[in-house]
Amino acid sequence: MTVRHDVSDDGAVHTITIDKPPGNVVDIAVCAELERAIATAADAAGGKVLVLRAAGNNFSFGASVEEHLPDTAPEMLAALGAVIRALVRFPYPTLVGVQGNCLGGGLELVLGCGIVIAEESAKLACPEIQLGVIPPAATALLG
Description:
Layout: E1 3-7, E2 13-18, H1 28-43, E3 49-54, H2 73-88, E4 94-98, E5 101-103, H3 105-111, E6 115-118, E7 123-125, H4 136-142
Parallel strand pairs: 2-3, 3-4, 4-6, 5-7
Antiparallel strand pairs: 1-2
Helix pairs in contact: 1-2, 2-3, 3-4
């Protein structure tokens, strides 16, 4: 399991942690786990806030490059989009903590949250732009 969902003793704080070393790359499987955890948190009684975080030194190196090939790209984009929509529509405040590199699809996840707290040294970027690739969710959420 690459996504952990922890709940505070009083049920008010739901913390979802991406834990997929070495760089918390977001792939279709991670997106499915994130979507399930977010749905569980949204349906929980007594919830007050959702905290999204990532284990390790980097929040995320971004979406899986391997899953951006013609055969899997539509499924990958749909899966990532579903997670971002779930964050945007979450019924309680969403907070995300960012450390290290937060790139591409990882940054798009961050942009789906209402409150972003980043370490001063964090690097947030969409490097795919340098290749002429538009980050769809980032474009919509920043637009």
